[in-house]
Structures
1.
Amino acid sequence: MTDIAVLLSETRSFPPPADFQRQAHVRDRGLHDSATADPIHYWAEQAKSLTWRTPWTQVLDWQPPHAKWFTGGTLNVAENCLDRHLAGPRRNKAAIVWEGEPGDRRTLTYWELAREVRAFANVLKSLGVRKGDRVGIYLPLIPEAAVAMLACARIGAIHSVVFGGFSPESLRDRMNDAQAKVVITADGGYRRGQIVPLKRNTDKALEECPSVQHVVVVQRRAAGPITEAHVDMREGRDHWYHRLMQHAPDACAPEPMDAEDVLFILYTSGTTGKPKGIVHTTGGYLVGAASSARMVFDLKEEDVFWCTADVGWITGHTYLVYGPLANGATCVMYEGAPDWPERDRFWQLVARHGVTILYTAPTAIRAFMKWGVEHPRKHDLSSLRLLGSVGEPINPEAWMWYHEHIGGARCPIVDTWWQTETGGIVISPLPGLTATKPGSATQPLPGYSVQLLTQQGEPIPTGGGLLSITRPWPSMLRTIWGDDRRYVETYFSKWAGRPDLYFAGDGAKRDEDGYWWILGRVDDVLNVAGHRIGTMEVESALVEHPAVAEAAVVGKTHELKGQSVCAFVTLRDGHQKSSALREELREFVAQKIGALARPDDVLFSADLPKTRSGKIMRRLLRDIAEGRALGDTTTLADPNVVNALKEQYADSEG
Ligand code: WTA
C-alpha cells in the first residue's frame, strides 16, 4: 500500500524529445490502434520481417492455455541472425564488440561471426549432437557464448544456458532436468579480478550427470593462460574448443526448423520446488525478440547497442543475442563487473565504443548513484541517445539520476517490464511516441493485451491489482520442460474456469492515464539485484545443512539490490546458534546455489510462525524482517512465536 501511495505522488512527465521523435521508427499511435483492432494481422505483419523457408499456414492456433504460432512455417534462427545480413552492406559490420574484464578486446563482424557459428555447428555435429538434443552452455560472457547459442540454433539443437555465477549443483540439476548431451564451458572467466573456475565447477557437476557425453572447453586467455590448477581435461570426454575448431569445416547449411520447434530452455525460479525449465520455440520467439528490439530500442543501422545482461538470463538471450542480431545491429558485450578495476568502467566502455543505446538494471543504477557522479563525469557520454531499464521496478529517484547524469537530460528512458516467460518486452514506452513518467513502465506494446484483475478475476480499470496478459503472444513460453502440468498450474490456473488468462505473478497499479506501475512479485519469489530467486530453493539448500531443522526465507528491502535474502532458521537439537554458524550457513547457500542467493541475514529461531494447518506464515516473517508492525496474527497456531522472534530480530539488528 505504501508503494502505491509513493507512486501516486509521481507527477513528472517527459514527452519524447523532438529530435528523437523526428527520427524514430514509431512516432504515432496508428500502430497501437491497428494492432488492437486486429492483433493477428499485426503479428503476421511483424513476422514478415523475418526470413522464412516456408510460409506459415495459420498465424495462431490457441487451445487455452496452449498456443502455437505461425504453424506450418519453417525458418532458422541463425540464418535470420547471420546469413541474411551477409549479402548486403552489413557483411563487414561489427556484430559483437567485446571487452573482457582484464581489458582484452575482440570485434567480430557479421561475416566472422557467421563463419565461427558454422564451424562450431559442425563441431557439435561431430560430437554427435542432433536436432532436438540438449546442449548446456556454462560460459563467461565471451563471444563464444553467442557462438554456441547460434550454433545450436543452426543445427536445431536446444540450448540451455546456465549463468556462470551458478554453483556446480545448480548446473548439475539443470543439466539433469534437460538431459543434456554436451556441455560447453571455459577453463575460467574473470569477475572482480578473480578467476571463476568454470571447468572445475563443471567437473564437479558432471560427477552426477550421466547424460552428458562431451565437454567443450573454451580457453579464456587474457592476463596469460588460466593455469592448469583450474583445468583437468578428461580423456575422451573433454575437448578444447580451439583444437576442435582448427579442423572444422566452415560450411553448414541451416536446418529448417518448424516454427514450433524448441529453440531453448532457460531455467528460472518459481515459488515451489526446483527451477522451472521455461521452453521457448523458434518462430514466435524470434518474431517477438526482433520486433520488440527494433521498436523499443529504435534500432538503427548506425547504433551501438549495449545490453549489460549476461547470456545466463533471458535479457541476455533476447536483447544481447537474438533481438539485436536479427536486426543486424552492433552489440557491445562486456564480461566483468561494473566496478573493475574502477567504478567508472561502464562509462569508459560507453565512451570507448561510442555506445548509443544502454540497457541495464535498476540495481546497477542505484550502485552508480551511490558511487557518485564523478565517475560518469570523467567520460564523454554524448554518444548515448536512448537508455533502458529492466529487471525490477526502478524508483523515481534512480530514474531521474539515470536521466540527468547518464542521459544528459536528452535521452528517453524505456523502462521495460517482462519476464523469462514472456520471452520479450511486454510493457514499455516506445521512445519516439510515449511520454514517460519516472517509475512507470507506461503501456503495453502493440499486439499485447494486458489487464489488471482482482483475485476473483474482475477487471480493474484504475487502481491496484494482479497483472494478467489476456491474449496469447508469439514469444510466450510454451510449457515447462518435462512438466506441462506445472505450466498449466503456475500460469493459467489463477482464475478458475479461465485457462486463457496468463498470471504473471506481479502486482501492478494503473493510473488515470492508463499508465502501468509495476509493484513487484505477489508470490514468494525474491528479486535480488534483478534476478529471480525462489524462497524454496534457498530453504532447500539450508535444510541440507546438518545443523538445520527448518528454514523459512523472505525478501527484505535492500538499498542497492532491491531485495536481499533473509533466512529464519531453526536448528536441530544439539546445535547451538553462533556467529560462526551464521557465516557457515551463508556460505553454504552460496556454494549450493550461487553467490547471488547468499542470505544477508540469518536469524536463529526456536520456532517459526505457522498456521494451525502447519503452513509457515512468510507474510509475518516479512513484517519482522522489514521491522514493520505485524499484520493479522489471528490465524497463528502460537502467537507467542512471532513476538519472541520480533524481539530477537531487533536485538540482532542493534
Ligand atoms: C520483475 C527479467 C518492474 C518482475 C526480464 C518480473 C520488473 C520479474 C521489470 C521477471 C520492470 C522485470 N519493472 N519489475 N521494468 N522487469 N521485472 O524472469 O517482478 O528474470 O516478474 O525476467 O522481474 O524476472 P525475469
2.
Amino acid sequence: MLSIAVLVSGGGTNLQAIIDAIESGKLKDVSIGCVISNRKDAYALTRAKDHKIPGECIRPRDFGSIEEYGDHLANYLQSNGIDLVVLAGFLVVLPKNFIQAFAGRIINIHPSLIPSFCGDGFYGLKVHEAALARGVKVTGATVHYVDEGTDTGPIIIQKAVCVEPGDTPEILQKRVMEQAEWVILPEAIDLVRKELEDRR
Ligand code: GRF
C-alpha cells in the first residue's frame, strides 16, 4: 500500500479526483495518509474531512524561516509513514531541504504542457491567460517529479486539451481540469507507485 500526502492550497478538485479514483477502485494499493494545506480556509480541507482523511493546516508564517517550515513538514510526513508527496494546487515554493528529504518522491500537477507556460509566476489562471495570449490551439496538463527548480523535474504524464474559439481563461481552466488534470493525476500516482515498487 502506497501512503500519500496531498498538499493543497485551494478548492481541492485534484484532491477530489484522487479520492474518487481510490473509492471507485480505479486507483488500487494507494491510500491518502493526510492532506496538508497552507491555508485554513482551503475547501480541500473540507473535502478531506468529508472523506475522513486527516487534514492539517501547516503554514510557513508560523515558522521562523521557509527552511524551518520544510524541516517540520518533512518530519511530520515521515513520522506519518508517507511514501509519496503529491502537490495538487499547492502554492508554497518548497525549500531545498524538503525536496532533498523526499528526493524522487514528490510529484506536481501543472495546468499546461510543460515546457510551455511554466516556471516562476505561472500558476492557476495565469497559465491559461498566457496560453490564450500566445494563441496556442492545444494546451493541457502535466504531472512531473519535483526537483529543486520550478516545474523542471522529469515529466511523468501529459494530456492535451483543445483550445476553443471564444475561450476565456476560466472556461479553459475548467476544461483542462476536467479533461486533463483530474484524469492524469490518479494515473500518474499509479505509475509512480509501480516505479517505487520496482526501486525497492
Ligand atoms: C488549479 O488552477 C489547477 O489547474 C492547479 O491548481 C489549481 C487549484 O486546483 N493544478 P484544485 O482545485 O485546488 O485542485
